[in-house]
Prior knowledge:
The complex is a heterodimer of chains A (451) and B (34). Chain A has 451 residues and is α+β, with helices and mostly antiparallel strands. Chain A has helices at 19-25, 110-113, 131-139, 149-157, 220-224, 232-244, 330-334, 350-356, 433-437; strands at residues 53-57, 68-77, 80-85, 96-99, 106-107, 143-144, 167-172, 175-188, 191-196, 205-209, 215-216, 228-229, 274-278, 286-294, 299-304, 316-319, 325-326, 338-339, 381-385, 393-402, 405-410, 419-422, 428-429, 441-442. In chain A, the strands form four sheets. In chain A, strands 7, 8, 9, 10, 11 and 12 form a six-stranded mixed β-sheet that branches. In chain A, strands 13, 14, 15, 16, 17 and 18 form a six-stranded mixed β-sheet that branches. Chain B has a two-stranded antiparallel ribbon. Strand 6 (143-144) of chain A pairs parallel with strand 2 of chain B.
Amino acid sequence: MSWPKTITSRLGGVRGFDWGPYLSSTSSDAASVSCFKHCPMSDNWLNITVGMKVEIQNHECDLPDHAYWIATVIKIAGYKSLMRFEGFGNDTSYDFWMNLCTQDVHPVGWCATIGKPLVPPKSIQHKYLDWKEYLVKRLTGSRTLPSNFYNKVVESIGNHRFKKGVHVEVVDKMCVSAMRVATVDEVIGGRLRLQYVDSKEENDDFWCHMRSPLVHPITWSQRSGHKLHASQEYKNQCLNKIITENYHPNDAVPDMFHKAKEPQGDLKFQVGMKLEAIDPLNLSAICVATVMKVLKNNYLMIGIDGSMAQNGSDWFCYHTSSPCIFPVGFCEINGLDLTPPRGYKGQFKWFEYLKQSKSTAAPVKLFDKEIPKHGFKPGHKVEAVDLMEPRLICVATVSKVVGRLLRIHFDGWENEYDQWVDSESPDLYPAGWCEVMNYGLEGPRVKVEPP
Amino acid sequence: DVPTSTKKWEQKQVQIKTLEGEFSVTMWASGGDD
């Protein structure tokens, strides 16, 4: 795969990016954790509410030992929360941001269990003579985190079967129409750093989430009839595994992956049918495309019209239920730009094009039309994988929402680097996810003006 | 400030320790309990 050269300089972004000041200065909201089903605490996040009380370290204190005080959640942005210490009333000047899923945030009552007293910040100590009365009034009937909150966070981060050393089949990043065998080298929050087993280069790695449609169990390529770049020995072993179901303990097996939806009805995609698809090599474009091959188990090889390599090396595998393929007319109905085949002369009209190319449109019935209640809105800030350089997770904004489809804009970058992704993409994360996982987040690009 | 849905919320006595002494308050806890 030839990456656009201009996009490979993302490492120039701001390291150690801090969401808090950025969210405040841009007056923006971040998508709620409950929008990201693949992320820790997503199922429970609606119970995390503004007004909740927590215990956190009070740095404004003269005591030699750590002191803690009660803070109120003022605003929630992803995993981040704007906090205000109790006693400051409506004074916003000491507000601060914290990540709710770190070990530094405790439920009310935690200090008492470890015998530590709560001490108000020095600047407000004089405000009340009787802090007990004040706290009883402020805390009674309000909400806090459950005592096992942090344990739940830790549990939900590591709750999967992908470990270092597990073998998978994953798309060949140098030839997207083929799969290669790779070994899991590192797992961070469900994201896999994979090393191609046949690679001659030392750091020939590839990042993808364990729920990515790019990664599959061992034997998947042969089961589905997908092109596989692997040794004959590996292929023979796979054939044996398919017959005996006898996997190696390090093999990723089918039940470690999400099952794709089965199509309803007897109608099937046929070779030559036309459709619209997100261009896998230029994710900002939805293009005119063709079904080039029908694989087994409801997988398709799709080619982008006008830019297909002679040998089919740029065909891309999509499941028939993929949210990244659309029926003819999808862009027009939704007011989106459809990229016509390269070199197409005149204004592109599907009716004319189908006639000229003597082809038919894939029936609308064949596409998955389900739109999940995802909760994303334009303007929401997220942490998004740059799918052209998937080891990078960047500060980004949902710039458009079309049903379940999201246009992701990378903050500070031109719109040509935008990427279309599904709302359930495992490559999107809430603000603060990288901090929880201790993964570097690429801040917005800062343009340096020439002197 | 009673949560509208009490399905995943439980009322609990929470112990508070300050420099002046200890006392308890009644709060709602949730956000992760099954």
